[in-house]
Amino acid sequence: QKPQILLVSSLQECILSGIMSVNGKKVLHMDRNSYYGGESASITPLEDLYKRFNLPGTPPESMGRGRDWNVDLIPKFLMANGQLVKMLLYTEVTRYLDFKVIEGSFVYKGGKIYKVPSTEAEALASSLMGLFEKRRFRKFLVYVANFDENDPRTFEGVDPKKTTMRDVYKKFDLGQDVIDFTGHALALYRTDDYLDQPCQETINRIKLYSESLARYGKSPYLYPLYGLGELPQGFARLSAIYGGTYMLNKPIEEIVIENGKVVGVKSEGEVARCKQLICDPSYVSDRVTKVGQVIRVICILSHPIKNTNDANSCQIIIPQNQVNRKSDIYVCMISSAHNVAAQGKYIAIASTTVETADPEKEIKPALDLLEPIEQKFISISDLFAPTDLGTESQIFISRTYDATTHFETTCDDIKDIYKRMMGSEFDFEEMKRKKNDIYGEEEQQ
């Protein structure tokens, strides 16, 4: 029986293969690499990271055992109440993974970093804003918490589909600093374009942040032990349980097209036939367009980041306004507490969207917060988006990872591909019901 769907790897593809398998589709997954997850892999041992970035020599002894390291090429955290966690719970991939809560989120203001308040007590003590500002901000948060897009009584004169976010901030009389940290550290926008959009999405994003925070208290973010490379592997195992097939080390020689439609993929002289193909941009350079670049710098430190209260993990957001840029700069920091680094070592990864011809200078404000840095690994990657939506060709292409430090945009991409493939919205509740139909209620308990 030929597979309905063939996938070529990155995290989006791994998650889709899991979801499609659970939905009873026949899936074949090929990867030219010897590991899962493509761009979103975790590299181990440390020697391999040195090789990958063409650094001379081997890691110094001070770095400890090479196999104690699992370094994400592209760091991201999971929102505790976000879409990826829902996908993990729905597909039950959670049984293969263990998570830890990230200890704090910080925001940059006037050259210093401040903790993003995670409780009312923290908010009252925070030096991010003055006393009256705190009161107004609290009123705003209460409004957001009560806001229900299906109940106009909660709108207080705001039209969620028309009123801009700029006007909502005005309504609560919030100042520029508070707007900066609300838009960038809570709603997690990368630029200020959202200010002139209808406020509904921003309000929902702040709700997501608050609900995620409420689950574990320290921050809204989770991170898997042993690194993000565990995610694609978890979905690969899931796919296998439902009869999906995985092939690593498979060079992809050609995507076979007949009458403008994909019919298979040629590898090592043989053609694996399929009705639909999902792949990342690196396999179909003629069907994607470059939409920008991201610079990422992986830094190995022997100390926690200053002014984070010695957190063993954290996120720092540098809002673009604070450093005269159009897009934010992000830092993710994790450590031996997550089984991704040797004892006493920390991995901090800074990333941002490239805006000038000198990306290393653009990322400097983040690196300054991390000094002294023991070793740096710098990469600049092109961002691609599909020009072919797949309607005709049935080739569905995922987008390259952006600079954000959470998975919400990646999940939007997954839902978008799902919709283009299946012709219907991605709906968790609907899928749960279907799963019950196939396997009965008992096994779900």
Automatic annotation (TrEMBL):
Main location: cytoplasm
GO molecular function, one term: GTPase activator activity
Keyword Membrane recorded: yes
Any one GO biological process: protein transport
Entry-linked InterPro entries: FAD/NAD-bd_sf, GDP_dissociation_inhibitor, RabGDI
A GO cellular component annotation in the UniProt record: Golgi apparatus
Localization terms from the record: Cytoplasm; Golgi apparatus, trans-Golgi network; Membrane
Keyword Methyltransferase listed: no
Transmembrane segments: none
Domain of life of the native organism: Eukaryota
Membrane topology listed for this record: Peripheral membrane protein
Matches recorded under Pfam families: GDI
Keyword tags: Acetylation, Cytoplasm, Golgi apparatus, GTPase activation, Membrane, Phosphoprotein
PANTHER family assigned to the protein according to its UniProt record, in alphabetical order: RAB GDP DISSOCIATION INHIBITOR BETA, RAB GDP-DISSOCIATION INHIBITOR
Subunit structure: Interacts with RHOH. Interacts with the GDP-bound inactive forms of RAB3A, RAB3B, RAB3C, RAB5A, RAB5B, RAB5C, RAB8A, RAB8B, RAB10, RAB12, RAB35, and RAB43; binds RAB3D to a lesser extent. Interacts with DZIP1; this interaction negatively regulates the interaction of GDI2 with GDP-bound RAB8A.
Function statement: GDP-dissociation inhibitor preventing the GDP to GTP exchange of most Rab proteins. By keeping these small GTPases in their inactive GDP-bound form regulates intracellular membrane trafficking. Negatively regulates protein transport to the cilium and ciliogenesis through the inhibition of RAB8A. Regulates the GDP/GTP exchange reaction of most RAB proteins by inhibiting the dissociation of GDP from them, and the subsequent binding of GTP.
Similarity field: Belongs to the Rab GDI family.
Annotated protein name in UniProt: Rab GDP dissociation inhibitor
Protein source organism: Aegotheles bennettii
